Amino acid sequence: MRFALFLSMTALLVPVYLLLRPLSRAAGKAIAGGWFRGACRLCGLDVRVAGAPCRAGTTLLVANHVSYLDVPVIGSLVDVVFVAKREVADWPLFGFLARLVGTAFIGRKASGAAMQARYLSRRLKAGERLLAFPEGTSTDGLAVRPFKTALFAVAERMPADRPLWIQPVSISYPRTADGRSLSGGLRDLYAWHGDMTLLPHLLKVFGLKGAQVEVIFHEPVLATAFADRKDLAHYCRAEVALGVSMAMGRWRTAVPRSIAAPAVDPAITV
Fold first, then answer.
1. CB distance 118 to 154 below 8 Å
2. DSSP string covering the chain
3. Count of alpha carbons within 13 Å of 147, Cβ hemisphere only?
4. Measured between alpha carbons, how far is 89 from 83 in angstroms, rounded to an integer?
């Protein structure tokens, strides 16, 4: 029933989006946000939020990646353009939807890193707020993998008068909707990783009673405040890992910070 409702909702909203998006950017955003919120409700996701999305100028959000469910969860909270691997564009239905809303697709090869940085910087300069998953793959959500530093090269492409804010975001699926811990094998009820197949996993999700999702928007930092992109990537990963550990009830195991958060000019509104 939920899957049928999901398909019906999608079939209803896509034509409306195609009709109104060229006429009104605001209408397009509202329709996309409605789809994201509807998808979360149909999947039984109780999204809980700490912190707030950065409202200052040009912003790149970076988050850990647990599941395809991360996309509707974040999309229900903030207007962003997602950065995804190029293969997603070819997925049945979801690839079409991703292309429809303007997802920024990038390749995985290190040889194309400079081209990707130029491409993403153009999107940022055009006024888009981007969200990327720097781990490069999804995980079971228990730990945060090292962030790929190539993504942060986009900061080097931004003009001096257009500072880039980076905001770390933690995403966790710690409990079922009724408060039971999603530990052990239960993690894979919502985490999608490894060689799992999308459609069977999604159908199972629609048949579950739901889960609590905790999203933490950490304090944004200016990319220029760091010595290089490696320091920036390490700092963001440590912040995200801290948030995940706190949500999972084991904050003492978080990745230790070797780089302190740079001070933010109090004259700048975030």
1. no
2. -HHHHHHHHHHHHHHHHHHHTTT-HHHHHHHHHHHHHHHHHHTTEEEEEES----SSEEEEEE----TTHHHHHHTTS--EEEEEGGGGGSTTHHHHHHHTT-EEE---GGGHHHHHHHHHHHHHTTPPEEE-TTSS---SSS-PPPPGGGGGGGGGS-TTSPEEEEEEEEEEEEETTS-B--GGGGGGT---TT--HHHHHHHHHHS--EEEEEEEPPPEEGGGSSSHHHHHHHHHHHHHHHHHHHTT-GGGSPPPSSPPPPPPTTS--
3. 28
4. 11
Domain boundaries, the chain: 45-253
pLDDT tens-digit profile of 12-26? 999 999 999 999 999
- Both tokens of 142, joined, read 């228990």
Whether 251 has a pLDDT exceeding 70, the answer reads: no
Closest CA to 192 of 140, 146, 143: 140
What are the distances in angstroms from CA 15 to CA 9, 12, 235?
11, 6, 42
Question: 198: Cβ–Cβ under 8 A, 6 or more apart, which residues?
Answer: 68, 91, 94, 192
CA nearest to 199, candidates 7, 47, 17, 65: 7
pTM of the entire structure? 0.90
pLDDT single digits (tens) 189-238: 999 999 999 999 999 999 999 999 999 999 999 999 999 999 999 999 99
How much of the chain exceeds pLDDT 90, in percent?
80
Q: How far apart are CA 263 and CA 265, in angstroms?
A: 7
Name the more confident of 88 and 253.
Answer: 88
